[in-house]
Amino acid sequence: MAEPPETVDALVIGAGPAGLMAAEALAAAGRRVVVAEGKPSPARKLLMAGKSGLNLTRNEPLEAFLAHYGPVEERLRPILTAFGPEQVMDWAEGLGEQVFTGSTGRVFPRVMKASPLLRAWLLRLRQGGVEIRTRWLWTGWEEGAFAFDAPTGRRRISPRVTVLALGGASWARLGSDGAWAVWLAARGVPLAPFRPANAGLIVPWSPMMQRHHGAPLKGIALSAGALRSRGEVVISARGLEGGGLYSVVADVRDGAPLLMDLIPDMTQAQAADRLGAGRKGESLANRLRKALRLSPAAIALIQEFGRPLPTDPPALAMLLKHLPISHGGLRPLDEAISTAGGVRWEAVDADLMLRDLPGTYVAGEMLDWEAPTGGYLLTACFATGRHAGKAAAHWL
Ligand SMILES: Cc1cc2nc3c(=O)[nH]c(=O)nc-3n(C[C@H](O)[C@H](O)[C@H](O)COP(=O)(O)OP(=O)(O)OC[C@H]3O[C@@H](n4cnc5c(N)ncnc54)[C@H](O)[C@@H]3O)c2cc1C
To answer: What range(s) does the RsdA/BaiN/AoA(So)-like Rossmann fold-like domain occupy (predicted)?
Structure first.
């Protein structure tokens, strides 16, 4: 006969930012917490995020911050009001990591990396009694218990409360592969399909663009559907990527045309005047460089997408302000910085407890929300993890 499942007060599955925050809240309420993590070490995506500078949050007023969560702003309002940008900064400093605010309001640890913060956090969690079991891969439910592939073989746990914090469905090699969707769907939990968010665009470049691969386009503006952004985009071998683009991809994904403004600080009329004042016989590229200070990459881009290029200054100025970017769609889901889709909001109550599975909570990127990069992702993962952990402790 199979061994009876192990019983614990609280089980957290997934040791990413959301799961660790849930474990911290449960432990703070005096509960015995077991965290089960499928990978050999916790928070691999958080560590990866730190490779290019760990953007923890954004130092801006709460209302402006909340506006970045689009249709789920109101569901996240109480959660982010309790644990928003200010609290994230205090929390990081409480772990001994000094933070600073960059010129665009983005908040980073002074060391930029995630590893010192994670090390201090894991130590504090362990000292607080949290038991983190790595290589414990959840494989669904068996006879009502949570079943795992563990280093010691098949194991089952029957917790009094559970927080699921398994992440989205991108960068599967770091652990979040979205496999959980099948098991939740089988239990009747309504799910929205996974879609790439904060993803790059596929652009089949002409050979002429090859020498601009890797070049940044700084301070440009992009628009798609109702979304606008201002920032940097990088021309890569496979297309376009970067924060300026990620803020508008939600509407590109839904089919809206993408337009680029290469001279957002200038009106169309000002640009036309400057272009008209150029010397006769000057090449178009020289005119764009001298009159408008466009970089070689920006000039190449207008030549790539604007063919045949108008020579008439007003028409050229219009193209510079509204350059249509033709592309082959978004890069694949697994490459996306984050994913939209997952557990629908109607599936959870205000505590983030699954309505159909009392005592089971959901946090982090598993929930169906999306936001641009810039600290909004991590902050909402921390905040929903803490919220679910506190509510689970209360349920106990
Ligand atoms: C390259 C990159 C850079 C990023 N930079 C930033 C940034 O600067 N700022 C920002 O705000 N956001 C950034 N993000 C996004 C951010 O890292 C994620 O939104 C965040 O980590 C999601 O947290 P989570 O806890 O919900 O899920 P995850 O971090 O994905 O954690 C989920 C955990 O669950 C585990 N798991 C999954 N399935 C199972 C299973 N069946 N059994 C057991 N364990 C399982 C996984 O192994 C993983 O450890 C970046 C992402 C990437 C990929």
So the answer is: 9-390
Residue 337 has pLDDT above 90, yes or no: yes
Give yes or no for residue 171 CB within 6 A of ligand 1: yes
pTM of the full structure: 0.94
Indicate if 135 and 212 belong to the same structural domain.
no
Atom of ligand 1 at shortest range from CA of 375: 11
- Model confidence band, residue 103 (pLDDT cutoffs 50, 70, 90): confident
The verdict on 49 and 13 lying in the same domain is yes
What share of the chain in percent tops pLDDT 70? 100
**310 and 238 part of one domain:** yes
Instruction: Write out the two tokens for 336.
Output: 């996306």
pLDDT of 24-55, one tens digit each?
999 999 999 999 999 999 999 999 999 989 99
| Average model confidence (pLDDT) across the chain | 96
- Give dist(CA 19, CA 5) in Å, integer: 22
Asked if 217 and 363 sit in the same domain, the reply is no
* 385 alpha carbon – ligand 1 mean position (Å): 12
Please return the burial class of 159, using the count of CB atoms within 10 Å of its CB with bins 0-12, 13-18 and 19+.
Answer: buried
- Contact between 234 and 220 under an 8 Å Cβ cutoff? The reply is no
Examine the fold and report which residue of 330, 349, 366 is the final residue of a domain before the chain moves on: 330
Residue 225 lies in a domain: yes
Q: Write the pLDDT tens digit of every residue in 241-278.
A: 999 999 999 999 999 999 999 999 999 999 999 998 87
376 alpha carbon – ligand 1 mean position (Å): 13
Nearest-CA residue for ligand 1 atom 30 is: 167
Q: Judge if the beta carbon of residue 114 lies within 6 A of ligand 1.
A: no
Is residue 17 in contact with ligand 1, taking CB distance under 6 Å? yes
Spell out where the chain has E strands.
6-13, 33-36, 57-58, 99-101, 106-109, 131-133, 137-142, 145-150, 153-164, 191-197, 201-202, 216-224, 227-235, 239-241, 258-261, 323-324, 338-343, 360-362
Give the tens place of pLDDT for each residue, 116-160: 999 999 999 999 999 999 999 999 999 999 999 999 999 999 999
How many A from CA of 16 to the centre of ligand 1? 6
CA of 295 to the centre of ligand 1 (A): 36
Q: Does the beta carbon of 46 lie inside 6 Å of ligand 1?
A: yes
State the total domains in the chain.
2
Side chain identity at residue 295, one-letter code: S
Question: Would the CB of 175 count as within 6 Å of ligand 1?
Answer: yes
Same domain, 47 and 166: yes
Compute, in angstroms, the gap from residue 114 CA to the centroid of ligand 1: 13
Last residue of a domain, one of 289, 306, 330: 330
